[in-house]
Structure formats: structure tokens, C-alpha cells
Amino acid sequence: MTAQDLADTLKGRLIVSCQAPPGDPMRETATLVRLALSAVAGGGSAIRANEPEVVAAITGAVDLPVIGLWKDGDTGVYITPTVRHALAIVEAGAAVVAADATDRPRPDGSAFAELVTAVHAAGALVMADVSTLAEGIAAAEQGADFVSTTLSGYVPGTPKQTGPDLGLVTSLSAAISVPVVAEGRINTPDEAAEALARGAHSVVVGTAITAPTALTARFVAGLARP
């Protein structure tokens, strides 16, 4: 699938992130596959998934594009941090590899552009997860096929918000020609629609759809307020 083909498929559509953090009861491959199947049944247009085993299982179970990543660690650059991680995700069957494209150093000293080159050579596309406008512009210049706002609010120096960084969506959409994907703390359909209105090409929603532990905790916290 070419970048243009996938862009056409995803324009104005929902990508569902089917992931679970370490220690969560949902973090089991068969369970995550069922989440992906549920997302398909609800009308999702693509799945975002973590780790080669899960990516391979979901790719084999759904007839939708899979955006794969490999989280390794929990600090610094840990979303598909090296070329090795990226190629393992391609081998697992992902149509797109999502990778950290922030300006922080990668653990093996490589550059994001090297990852892009390797993934393209392997026949897949790249989604750059960024936290700022400058990072998004740089990622597009380095060949990323999509740029996502995933890391805004999770990198030191970026705004801490309870909702999505719609300002970044707006500025990126005006500054680059590659499709901008809105991701991060999108909690309601209205917020998803607003992201599209701000120029997003498509929208990723994870926790608000696929994370019963986090959703339960949110309700429990709400009931505990005085």
C-alpha cells in the first residue's frame, strides 16, 4: 500500500489504539485481538498496536491497516527506538511503523531519518510521533509519511493538558504537506471531530475506547470528589 493509498483510506476516519500497559489484565495477545475485532465491528478504519507478537496476531485477524510500534522501556525514546525495533514491526506485518521522532537522543545513537530509510526499504510506511511543531516539520522533511501529535504533553517542555493538544494539530496541519494524525488524550467524539476541524487527517483514540482499567479508575476518582 502506498502512502497515498493509505492516506485516502484514513482521511477523516478513526484509528483505534488497542494497547494495554504492563501489568494490566488486558495485556494479553488474544484479548488485544478481540479489542481490535471490536474496533472493526464498530467502524474503525485502522488499528494501532504494540509489540511484534500482538501486531502479527492482529494483522492476521483483521482486514484493516495496522500501525505497529514497539515500546521498549518507559523513559526517553522508547516508542520504536531503533531500526532493529522498526524492522521487527515490519516483519510482523504492519503497514505502518510508528516511531518516536522527537529531538531527544535515540538509545543506539541513530537518527530518525535512518529508521525512515530502513522502513521504506522494507516496504512499509512511517508515522512520526512528535511533541512539537518543530519536530513535526523535521520529521516530514526526513521522509515520514504521517506525523502524529502522540507525544505532546509527555515530553518535558510540552504543555500538560487533560485533553488533546489541538493547537499543535492546527499548527502542524498548516505547516506540513504530509497527513497529520491527532493522537493523545482524545476523550470524546466531540474532541475527535474538533481535531478534524482543526486540520487533522485522521484521529487515533485509545484509552477512551479500549482501556477498561483506566476508565474504571476515572469513574472511581470522580465519585471520590467531595
UniProtKB/TrEMBL annotation:
Pathway per the UniProt entry: Amino-sugar metabolism; N-acetylneuraminate degradation; D-fructose 6-phosphate from N-acetylneuraminate: step 3/5
SUPFAM superfamilies the UniProt entry points to: Ribulose-phoshate binding barrel
Reactions it catalyzes: an N-acyl-D-glucosamine 6-phosphate = an N-acyl-D-mannosamine 6-phosphate
Gene3D superfamilies tied to this protein: Aldolase class I (3.20.20.70)
GO molecular function, one term: N-acylglucosamine-6-phosphate 2-epimerase activity
UniProt keyword list: Carbohydrate metabolism, Isomerase
Protein origin, superkingdom: Bacteria
Record carries keyword Isomerase: yes
Record bears the keyword Isomerase: yes
Enzyme nomenclature, EC number: 5.1.3.9
Record-stated family: Belongs to the NanE family.
Protein purpose: Converts N-acetylmannosamine-6-phosphate (ManNAc-6-P) to N-acetylglucosamine-6-phosphate (GlcNAc-6-P).
NCBIfam families assigned to the protein according to its UniProt record, in alphabetical order: PRK01130.1
PANTHER family found in the cross-reference section: N-ACETYLMANNOSAMINE-6-PHOSPHATE 2-EPIMERASE-RELATED
Protein name: Putative N-acetylmannosamine-6-phosphate 2-epimerase
Organism: Streptomyces silvae
